[in-house]
Amino acid sequence: MENIIIVGAGLVGSLLSVYLARAGFKVSVYERNSDPRQINMQSGRSINITLSERGFKALDAVGAADVVRQLCIPVYGRIMHAQDGELTYQPYGNNKEAIYSIGREDLSKALISFAQKHENIEFSFNQKCIDIDLPTATLKLQNLKTGEITQVQADRIFAADGAHSPVRHKMQRLKRFNYSQEYLEQGYKEIIIPPGDDGSWVFDKNAIHIWPRDNFMLIGFPNLDKSFTLSLHLPYEGEISHDSTASGDAVRNLFETYFPDIWLLVEPNLTDYSHKPVEAMVTIKCFPWSYQDKVLLIGDSCHAIVPSYGQGANAGFENCQLLTKCIEQHPGDWQTAFREYETLRKPDMDVLADLCLEHFTVLRKMVGDPKFLERKKIERKLQQMNSEFASLYYNISFTCMSYSEALRIERIHQEMISQIAENNIKREVSV
Ligand SMILES: Cc1cc2nc3c(=O)[nH]c(=O)nc-3n(C[C@H](O)[C@H](O)[C@H](O)COP(=O)(O)OP(=O)(O)OC[C@H]3O[C@@H](n4cnc5c(N)ncnc54)[C@H](O)[C@@H]3O)c2cc1C
Known about the structure:
Strands 8-2-1-12-20-19 form a six-stranded mixed sheet. A six-stranded mixed sheet has the order 6-5-15-16-17-14, covered by helices on one side. It has 13 helices and 20 strands.
């Protein structure tokens, strides 16, 4: 039986271990952090993520969807909070389609526990990859508890070690390895709003709440314990920024001016706000994703995206399924399997990365914009009239069509919507 090493027991690494073990390989997963089931993990990453159709399909294919579903809250649409407190609801679909909000930590623990049930999967925690020899698929590890350094070798190594992947760093030194990274000019800090005094949700639990304010925004996700996680997205520097809201008075001023409807809920929960680091969001593209038939990058290590569509983990899960299919189609021919996988998936992940950057601006700037809302209204009417007419968000979140195909359809739809909007304006003017 071939031995496989996975670096990183994050969301993608854990699910990938299940796919590979089921395909008949012996899998060892090395993770630098402690076992999240034994500690209160403070990764600094977002507290919530949302799962959608393609993520669930990939979980379902290995029987992991049910355990995950129990930890989720369905979210049927967005509620926009205008500065004057007015609320606008945008359903995600016409048939109560939902995305699912889940705690990152809950998901991570569930996937590790699910994977550990498989006899051919072994997890080692507190083992940090400090180097890799690509041609021999040999990993140098440091035990972060004891300091001990060891080497492990496998037939193949899969690097699911996240956006700052040490394995990718090593590959970046190879000739003809393409790499780019781009940070958003905005960063975020999270604020937890506990349940109300009577133990109930403080906002509608089945919606994502957005306070779009042009160059900045607040976004809220429901949690299973009836709390909400708010992410405050601000530019790093400038008039309204993380820099300018370093003091408690400045934060109060920001909320009282731009988010007055929730200041009273936020105020008691700001005790550690000023000490929290500002979290960054990055887009990473690179190619190739593989080194010969020995090493493959997977997940954020080769395609980190900004979270505006909530797709990073969903796409990563989908990729575990696609990769396994390629491996099974080319038994023993790993190089062909890797090539096929990366060639198939790279264009889609590039499309998704660009769409996510665009959508970030949409969420911040245009969700509260009357012209945008008018276009959304037209889009919904078209959807009601013709069930084939699905929005880009719909195709990304509620179908498993490729991201490139979703973009192709969207271009056609936007052209139609522009024409209808133009005709509406002409009609209004002539009336
Ligand atoms: C703010 C925010 C919100 C998001 N929201 C969503 C969402 O709603 N929906 C969605 O689908 N996606 C979302 N994402 C994206 C999602 O979090 C990532 O795409 C996903 O976590 C990628 O999984 P991964 O396993 O590739 O990487 P990670 O989850 O980052 O896991 C990498 C693992 O590798 C380990 N590791 C790193 N270096 C080493 C080393 N040297 N040795 C050993 N182990 C190592 C890390 O400790 C970690 O456990 C969001 C991301 C952000 C930042």
